[in-house]
Specification:
By secondary structure, the protein is α/β, with parallel strands linked by helices. It is built from 14 helices and nine strands. The structure holds phosphoric acid mono(formamide)ester and norvaline.
């Protein structure tokens, strides 16, 4: 059994992370075979996942909703307009109420503390569907994508370009757990959180991987099996976009940066993308790009996660 909540990629032991990826791959194969096996048994019949979202979403929301439907259950989407968490109703009371009706909560929040409060007061599993600190469901889908392409995760090298943000944090932590090295190249003022970096380095020391941060994109890209980037201004930081653009321009992923990596290197992005800002159209729409595999894999990992958290 895994722990009750999934708030951080670091909540997973190596065994739990490997089991989740294995289960997601099996569910994917079943789904592509026409919904056979576990799908046909509708293990989530009568079960509801509440989606408490303070920010917009395409992938995370649809992957959870479709995933619940495909396993016989249901998703209930609650935007800030519907429940105004912390305004109309306190965060603990939202958790206490939902715990009486539904079987799990997926929450997308501005402050990571909000999701910790939800988890503290809920009697059902709470899943981090993105916070300012982490995006662990994304990292699971990304590592499943790498495992499919390379047949393994252990020993791979990923270069992350740009903002040391939530996506970067979860990649470093899950990479550290599963033995994937991460080299981050970012402007000096946008480094990943020092505490998370130290945590990822401690995990990496156990799994024969390394975690590094540099200001030099070419240095990070050297020898990389995948180059990953994300938007330069995350949700809630849109007002900083113009100021950030010149600072991040040297970290744009373009054909010349891709050439610094291994010839077989993949291009990865969590999406949504700002084409010709953090990555050129040529790269994201080119043959090395696996961004829609990453998006598809959100479905499979999130299904595996819900089944596991519900003890099914
Ligand atoms: N990658 C991702 O989480 O996408 P959404 O914001 O659309 O859910
Ligand atoms: N870093 C981005 C990821 C979006 C999926 C954000 O937080 O907006």
């Amino acid at each position: 059994m895994m722990q009750k909540h999934f708030l951080s990629a670091a909540d997973l032991s190596r065994e739990a992370a490997e089991a989740l990826l294995g289960r997601a791959a099996a569910l994917k194969a079943e789904w592509h075979a026409g919904g056979t096996g576990l799908h046909a048994a509708w293990p989530l019949r009568g079960k509801t996942l509440a989606l408490v979202f303070e920010k917009p979403s395409l992938r995370t929301r649809v992957a959870f909703e479709a995933g619940m439907t495909q396993l016989g259950g249901n998703g209930s989407y609650l935007s800030a307009n519907d429940i105004d968490m912390g305004g109309r109703e306190s965060v603990p009371d939202v958790a206490r109420n939902l715990s009486r009706w539904v079987q799990a909560i997926a929450a997308r929040v501005f402050k990571h503390g909000t999701i910790e409060t939800l988890a503290r007061h809920a009697t059902i599993p709470v899943i981090n569907a993105l916070s300012d600190r982490e995006h662990p469901c994304q990292a699971l889908a990304d590592l499943l994508t790498l495992r499919e392409r390379f047949g393994r995760v252990q020993g791979l090298r990923l270069a992350y370009m740009g903002d040391g943000n939530n996506v970067c944090h979860s990649l470093m932590l899950l990479g550290g757990i599963l033995g994937m090295s991460v080299a981050v190249a970012c402007p000096p003022d946008y480094r990943p959180d020092a505490e998370i970096l130290a945590h990822a380095q401690a995990l990496a020391a156990e799994s024969d991987a390394t975690m590094s941060v540099t200001a030099n994109p070419a240095e990070a890209a050297e020898g990389a099996d995948a180059i990953y980037t994300d938007v330069w201004a995350s949700m809630g930081q849109e007002h900083e976009a113009a100021r950030r653009r010149p600072v991040f321009q040297p970290y744009q992923v373009n054909a010349s940066l891709m050439h610094q990596a291994n010839p077989t290197a993949l291009f990865m992005h969590c999406l949504p993308v700002h084409r010709d800002e953090e990555v050129t159209s040529e790269v994201i729409d080119g043959p090395q790009s696996v961004v829609f595999d990453q998006a598809e894999n959100r479905l499979h990992v999130q299904k595996a996660l819900i089944l596991t958290l519900l003890g099914l």
